[in-house]
Write a structure and sequence with these properties.
By secondary structure, the protein is α+β, with helices and mostly antiparallel strands. It has two domains: 100 residues, no CATH class; 131 residues, Beta Barrel (Cathepsin D, subunit A, domain 1). The protein contains six helices and eleven strands. Strands 3-4-9-5-8-7 form a six-stranded mixed β-barrel. A four-stranded antiparallel sheet has the order 1-2-11-10, with helices on one face. Helix 1 runs parallel beside helix 3.
Amino acid sequence: MSDGDSPWQRDREPPDAPPPSRNRRLIWIALVLAAIAGLVELSRLFPGAVTSEDEPRLVYMIGWLALLSSGLVFSRQIKLGEAARNIAIWIAVAGVLAIGYSFQDELASIGTRLKSELLPGDAVVSGDHVLTLTQEESGNYYIYGEANGTRIRFLVDTGASDIVLSPADAGRIGIDLATLHFMRGYETANGIGSGAPYTIDRLTVGPIQLADVSISINRTDMRTSLLGMSFLKRMRSFEFRGRTLIIRWQ
């Protein structure tokens, strides 16, 4: 049996593949430079999107991408089709990261708007000391808060002078309605109401926390409790913008 036909040769490991060619090194360098040029062009097209504080982070990100992609270029065995696919994936990842980082504020705004639309009653913090509420289909603005630790759904009512708890909500937080004196008249969007003055230890609306809050407890049943002007006047400002109510505090 000749040496060429020996079965033992099938078990021998193939000789080492030649080192990567110079062309592959040049292609890798060109891709890294193209990524850097792309980021520079984005900064030019959208001035202010990347600040001086962001630049070190971008350099760090490019360094990691260059390190990871070098494994594809400098591997000793490489298939051109697979390499082209992997390079395209890394370019796409780099592009998405660069765009996402440059427009992080805009993307955060979109996320806030989406959350506000899906959960209109939940207070959405949309900025520094800023709450955003989205109008419901009924045309009203509702928000969930806590009175003495009990979760309550409030209707934001600029026609109501006070914070008004419905009898049902007052009973849920442990107030004995039989001990109240309903001697206060107040205005609401539905007319004059009769209520009892009361002070709750704590009122929380989203991140807003108020202590020793004067409220009224309505005599008759209500569909929902009201968050009236006595609450809104304690805020720095509030405004209606389209279908959005923006509340700023502090």
